Amino acid sequence: MSWLLTRLLAGVLAMAAGGILGYLLGRPTSSPVFSALLGGAAGVALAALIDALRGARLMAWLRGTQEGQAPRDTGFWGELGYRVERSIRQREQGLAQERLRLEQFLSAIEASPNGVLLLDAAGQIVWCNSVAADHFGLDPQRDRRQPVTNLVRAPAFVACLQQGRFDEAVSFPKPRHDGTLSVLVRPYGEGMKLVLSQDVTDRERNEAMRRDFVANVSHEIRTPLTVLAGFLETMANLPLTEAERKRVLGLMQQQTQRMQTLVSDLLTLAQLEGSPRPTVDRWVALEPLFLQVEADARALSGGRHALQVDHPTGVQIAGAQAELFSAVMNLLNNAVRYTPEGGSIELRWRLLPDGGGEILVRDTGPGIAREHLPRLTERFYRVDGSRSRETGGTGLGLSIVKHVVQRHGGELDIQSEPGKGSRFRLLLPAARVRLVQVADTPAEAA
Ligand code: ADP
Fold first, then answer.
1. CA distance 14 to 20
2. pLDDT single digits (tens) 376-389
3. Is 361 in the pocket of ligand 1 (CB under 6 A)?
4. CA separation for the pair 397, 409 (Å, rounded)
5. Residues 177-232: tens digit of each pLDDT
6. Number of folded domains in the chain?
7. Has residue 364 been placed in a domain?
8. What's the CATH code of the domain at 223?
9. Which range of residues forms the domain containing residue 119?
10. 184: domain CATH number?
11. Global pTM?
């Protein structure tokens, strides 16, 4: 009540001052009492006017943007202005903190590798992060407040929302047809929904590759097994002459050999995939390795090809000897198998200008058409299936070569043209190549 008392006091004082002034001014006239009453009323009116002006100043500040200080008056209006300003500033601070927290929360969702889309009770887009925008082909600003099913029309997604089946993720092609999305819808609040999306293109591709691989392996093993079973039946049920028996046994041996090679290649691949990269502190001398593969290739060729092999004296490669041997041997093996009799095959070594190295296997064989080149290193990919199998190929050779060279930090380069032979290059990085004095070159230096 102090505010009322002070204001009443101020009114009374203004009235008294006005009355006294009126009385003093009216004394020379015949009616000093009337002048005193008039002066008192004028005093009260003046006090009320000043009060109203101070109130109006505060009201103008409140109606404005409320920036800066409220009018700093004394008394009632001053205190009212100060208190209103303080409560506005506190509310602004609270709002700023809330906004900051919301921004931090949204940027945390933005950083999520998954898409996040918020829908209101009517199924309209409230907010989405950029991953979801990319997944669903949305524009976060333009598409806000749009019904999501107008923009994402995948039947599986629409059915999931309409039927309220939120217990399982649904998969469907991305709207731009460049992959597959897995989407999980979770209801929250009052009818609102949280849509989580994940790009499962790679996972699906790997799963398809795994299925293909298992199917291919089964097929590759089943074929020789069927042949073997047939021969066994023949031997068990038919009286064979000694010559026939020998021929059948020979064919059975061939099929067994085929299965053995396949299993051995599969084991090599599994080992390459399951073991850590070869370290860079174990050095393999290249010259003895070349001599070894040359001997094996000559035996395989049986004199049908002209073989030219470099002698990379003093060259050492950091890596795994068995893997490097397997890679070079696979390339030579292919060259021998696919190059017709009379053709020539080269195994070369070259130091590259950047300090890296190149192991090259070139042949004058039939060559490979351009469209096959990118797929040659896929498991079981063959240009000519029957030719590959006839010559004991498994379809895994180049895939092993690629794995080996990649594990050594390098790459496999293939160049070939039908009728012009093929050129396979193992490119090794400088960190894995060194030259040593010939006298210091042991067979395999640790
Ligand atoms: P394969 O065991 O069938 O030889 P690879 O993975 O080693 O399997 O090779 C894949 C395919 O690449 C082969 O089936 C063959 O068609 C082709 N190929 C590989 N090397 C040569 C080559 N030197 N000349 C011609 N074709 C080749």
1. 10
2. 999 999 998 888 88
3. no
4. 19
5. 788 999 999 999 999 999 999 999 999 999 999 999 999 999 999 989 999 999 99
6. 4
7. yes
8. 1.10.287.130
9. 112-199
10. 3.30.450.20
11. 0.70
